[in-house]
Amino acid sequence: MGKGRLEAFSDGVLAIIITIMVLEMKVPHKADLSGLRPLIPVFLSYVLSYVYIGIYWNNHHHLFQAVHSVKGSVLWANLHLLFWLSLFPFMTGWMGENAFAAIPVAVYGVVLMFAAIAYFILTRVLIANHGKDSTLGTAIREDFKGKISVILYAVAIPLAFVNAWVACLIYTVIAIFWLIPDRRIEKTLIQ
């Protein structure tokens, strides 16, 4: 079957996730700048999650540029990824509302890690469906960024109980690491 419906559905879900996240930021009841101070953690958690959703959307787009068709296994792997991403609004709100307390920061890391694992599974299912010598299989032979990201999440999660800000710094570093889209697919498609 064609990939268009899967891409359109995924784009819609990601747009809804971003919308829900922004709606979680409540308008202050004070008309001066002091009313914004309590919203700083909420806003910072929103920015981090917004960047992560943007990264997933961008890489998902690049990934599906190298895909010609999808099977049921791809649909389920994609839904698995969207499940973890759909938890971002809740986790973003919980972490922000609690000023980056240890437990919300650690659980946020768990969601980030499982989203990364789900994305890895999606890429492997797509490669299995298209073949190791396909454009996608050729482009994603080694997944250094994906593997190191999961390792860093696994380090940051327990670290959140020691220093939540250091864990958040690790999450931010991983996001910065991924801001540049996966160029392997673009390079393979151009050749």
State the main characteristics.
single chain, 191 residues, mainly alpha, membrane
Q: How many whole angstroms does the radius of gyration measure? A: 18 Å
Cα distance spanning the termini: 26 Å
**Helical coverage, percent range:** over 70%
Main beta sheet: none
The coarse overall form would be: globular
Structural class: mainly alpha
Order of helices and strands: HHHHHHHHH
* Average pLDDT over all residues: 91
User: Could you name the ranges where pLDDT drops below 50 across 5 or more consecutive residues?
Assistant: none
Could you explain the architecture of this structure?
Keywords: Ion channel, Ion transport, Membrane, Potassium, Potassium channel, Potassium transport, Transmembrane, Transmembrane helix, Transport. With 191 residues, the chain is mostly helical. It has one domain. 75% of the residues lie in helices and 0% in strands. It contains nine helices and no strands. The longest helix has 29 residues.
Compact summary:
The protein has about 190 residues and is mostly helical. The protein has helices spanning about 5-25, 40-65, 70-85, 90-95, 100-130, 135-140, 145-160, 165-180, 185-190. It is globular, with a radius of gyration of 18 Å.
Topology:
Layout: H1 4-23, H2 40-65, H3 72-86, H4 88-97, H5 102-130, H6 135-139, H7 144-159, H8 164-178, H9 183-190
Helix pairs in contact: 1-2, 1-3, 1-4, 2-4, 2-8, 3-5, 4-5, 5-7, 5-8, 7-8
